[in-house]
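Exercise 7. Given the encoded structure of a 216-residue chain, write a plausible sequence.
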């Protein structure tokens, strides 16, 4: 498994270094739990994340890496209070359906896979005293999203979108038992889109042609 991960990281790095377009994005937003657990009463909890993405490749399709963590954490109240801290790190494939993605409005589709790492904090009620903190075994999960991207100024873009994260999590109270710990994510970010080589030449040619037609 470690060899496979190292191979993927190497190929991704090689892909980024030889890309015609690079994208750097920082984002935040709001997540909504969609857990399937009777212990947690299947409640929906809202909490903010923060993350970043780096991707490179063709102007319309890029491969990249993503890291995300919670700013705040979902908390469930029952016999005791249960809080989940989580970080995510993985790879994603991004497509931008625009005539000129680095400079124009476009529809964005994403799909990714990676490791979701969680810590479960159990608090006693009503005292709210931390009773137990458990590092749960990290789980391979998947995500997919859709959104739009548009320029603010030249290569700087804003991007808004929706992402669904599918992951199962081990139950801290029962060995060999997992439950679905999926969640919705509504995101807004800022991205810098850099172009190189033939893609840069194409962008200059198209943008230069537009300026000439408008009399710039």
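Solution.
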């Amino acid at each position: 498994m470690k060899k496979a991960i190292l191979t993927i990281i190497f190929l991704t790095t090689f892909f980024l270094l030889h890309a015609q377009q690079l994208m750097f994005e920082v984002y935040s937003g709001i997540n909504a739990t969609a857990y399937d657990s009777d212990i947690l009463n299947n409640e929906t909890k809202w909490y903010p994340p923060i993350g970043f993405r780096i991707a490179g490749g063709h102007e319309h399709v890029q491969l990249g890496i993503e890291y995300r963590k919670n700013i705040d954490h979902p908390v469930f109240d029952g016999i005791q209070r249960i809080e989940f801290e989580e970080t995510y790190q993985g790879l994603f494939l991004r497509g931008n359906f625009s005539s000129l993605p680095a400079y124009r409005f476009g529809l964005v589709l994403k799909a990714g896979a990676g490791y979701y790492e969680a810590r479960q904090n159990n608090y006693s009620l009503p005292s709210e005293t931390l009773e137990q903190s458990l590092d749960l075994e990290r789980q391979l999960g998947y995500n997919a999203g859709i959104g739009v991207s548009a320029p603010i100024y030249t290569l700087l873009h804003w991007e808004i979108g929706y992402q669904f994260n599918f992951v199962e999590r081990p139950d801290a109270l029962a060995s060999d038992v997992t439950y679905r710990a999926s969640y919705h994510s509504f995101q807004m970010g800022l991205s810098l889109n850099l172009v190189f080589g033939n893609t840069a030449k194409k962008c200059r040619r198209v943008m230069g042609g537009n300026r000439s037609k408008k009399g710039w």
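Remark. The helical segments are 2-17, 197-214. Students should compare their own answers with the one above.
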